[in-house]
Amino acid sequence: MFTRVTREEKKVAYGFAAVMLLCILYSVAVFIGFTKGAIPSGYEPFLRIPTGSYYFWQAFFTTPVGLIGWILFAGAAQLLSRRLGGHGSFEDNLAVLGFPFILFIPLSWLPEQVMTFFPKWWTAPMWQASTPFRVGFSVAWFAVVSIIGLRQVQKLSLVRATLTILVSLFPTIGVQIAYLH
Fold it and tell me: How far is CA 125 from each of CA 36, 113, 132, 134, rounded to the nearest angstrom?
């Protein structure tokens, strides 16, 4: 599947579209949350924005942060792949590593969007208990699909592709944690 994508003339556009779809959906969800009075909870983000207006501003910086995360992820994977004997291009990585972002739509965005319409459910014990599993499964699924794609385009062994993806996720997750709540 991924090999076919890398043969396309506009392959990077496919990865870009996948990332943009998720970013736009999250921007809309965050803005709806803001209009309904939702406020961030948990850790303190890098940006010192007042809690009451954080989601308003996050609606505007979700897309740039998501795009930076995607480029950083594909770039880190390219650099590490080369060190481990990979043969694919950076453009191949951008194309292939954009698609796994779509996996967050059914596993993260959709449940969170439903919760936007029922804000009192955010504090419900069932939601609180399920969140680590839902998020963990989302990230694991994302990693598995990324490993499969990277392995195909870079011609790496399973172990090298896995190592590359796991290491490449760190800067991307760091950007997400720093800016998104």
Answer: 21, 18, 12, 14
